[in-house]
Design brief:
Oligomer: single chain
Number of helices: 11
Radius of gyration: 24 Å
Mean pLDDT: 87
Distance between the termini: 58 Å
Structural class: alpha+beta
Length: 418
């Protein structure tokens, strides 16, 4: 069969460079056209937060919930909100109003007697629950994180050869939402060179010595794998070689996107999808030391740390996190410092216990590079072996509701629907 021939409308033969450029441009047009075609037919959808007013009787597990430990988390957020100007936006896409909308609720909460007994009736009297949806989808992914444990030294000596770096002074972090409303929740980072903001070195560059000999090392730890997981968790406790402890927390990030290496292990067939967990990733890295560094460097995101002086890690809201009560959310969509009802499932990574319902009143107090979307959350489990087990095994569908002050809820319900 004769092959069909095509003649491009050029007066002379194309150079190799021009031919490649033309083909790439054509391919881009095809891809974009395909995405537009799929989008118009509803096969590709963008994230979009919607809310639905409900009653407390609609919240799974609300009547029999245990509120032990919640008040401490709630008080921390309220004390922070009390310091804000009343006109300060709470964040997210605007459903939570301003600090002034929350300050009366917080004032009333701070006046409550200690203990969990009155919390249920307090929220029923002062708030209205709204279910959070992604377009029309009620469910999303919920995972867990913990405060990591590491071994370290202030000086570089075997086996303490992996540094945790302080934030470099030239690193600039930019909240793009301050420049364009449509970019709210998006951030970049880099350094200024010749008056231009340029990308900061990625994980490979930094581990290759981009920050060497600058006295930016906060502490040296004995495991590159432990350091990698600390970058994911954002905070940790370092047991020092002199018998003291050092608590470290997130200070900044290099601006490169987070890449989940667990996805790579699944794609290459190294770990089955149904067996994937934080512990499975760690086991593979420890069992394959010749490939571990290369895999970890696929995650170009790199985190810088600071020394903490409090009793716990500090979340993105600027308050200490509370085990099993602090929730990391995507601040592009949701505000920080607000109560949320979470209904999902948990099971330890060891698999010794079957999945059990996890229905908790939480405080949105943190965020994370892997937390993306309106119905998405990461439960903080605290520090120690139990926290490690529970967070590593948590990966379940779930639903969330935000509890808004009644006066603010009334304003939202009066808004015209589009």
């Amino acid at each position: 069969m004769a092959m069909a021939s095509f003649r491009f409308p050029f007066s002379r033969p194309l150079s190799r460079k021009t031919w490649i450029t033309t083909m790439v441009a054509g391919l881009v047009l095809v891809v974009v056209g395909t995405l537009v075609w799929l989008y118009e037919r509803g096969q590709v959808t963008e994230d979009n937060l919607n809310i639905r007013a409900v009653s407390f009787s609609d919240l799974p597990g609300w009547p029999e919930a245990d509120y032990t430990g919640f008040r401490a988390a709630f008080v921390k957020s309220c004390q922070k909100i009390a310091t804000l100007p009343a006109t300060r936006e709470m964040g997210g896409v605007g459903i939570a109003g301003t600090a002034g909308d929350w300050q009366p609720l917080c004032e009333a909460a701070l006046a409550l007697p200690p203990g969990p007994e009155l919390l249920q009736s307090f929220f029923e009297s002062h708030t209205t629950p709204f279910q959070i949806l992604n377009n029309t989808e009620e469910t999303g992914l919920f995972t867990g994180y913990y405060e990591a444990s590491l071994n370290g030294s202030r000086t570089r000596q075997a086996p303490y050869l992996t540094p945790l770096y302080l934030r470099p002074p030239e690193l600039v972090m930019v909240d793009l939402g301050q420049f364009r409303d449509e970019l709210k929740g998006q951030r970049i980072a880099g350094s200024v060179v010749g008056g231009n903001l340029v990308p900061y070195p990625d994980r490979t560059g930094i581990e290759g010595g981009a920050l060497a000999d600058r006295a930016l090392e906060l502490v040296w730890v004995d495991s590159a794998i432990d350091a990698f997981f600390l970058h994911i968790q954002g905070s940790g406790v370092v047991e020092m070689d002199d018998g003291t402890t050092l608590r470290v927390g997130y200070a900044a990030q290099n601006g490169h996107p987070y890449f989940a290496i667990g996805r790579e292990l699944i794609d290459k067939g190294y770990v089955a999808k149904e067996d994937m967990s934080m512990q499975a990733i760690r086991d593979w890295l420890e069992q394959n030391p010749d490939k571990a560094a290369e895999l970890m460097q696929k995650n170009a995101s790199y985190v810088f740390f600071r020394e903490l002086s409090g009793d716990g890690p500090v979340g993105a809201q600027g308050v200490e996190l509370t085990a099993e009560r602090s929730l990391a959310v995507d601040r592009k969509w949701l505000p920080l410092g607000v109560p949320m009802w979470l209904s999902t499932e948990v099971a330890p990574a060891s698999g010794e216990m079957k999945s059990a319902p996890f229905r908790h009143l939480m405080m949105a107090q943190d965020t994370g590079g892997a937390i993306r979307g309106p119905v998405r959350g990461d439960v903080f489990w605290g520090h120690g072996d139990h926290a490690y087990e529970m967070s590593g095994g948590m990966k379940s569908d779930g639903e969330i509701w935000i509890l808004l002050p009644k006066s603010l809820a009334a304003k939202l319900l009066q808004r015209p629907t589009s």
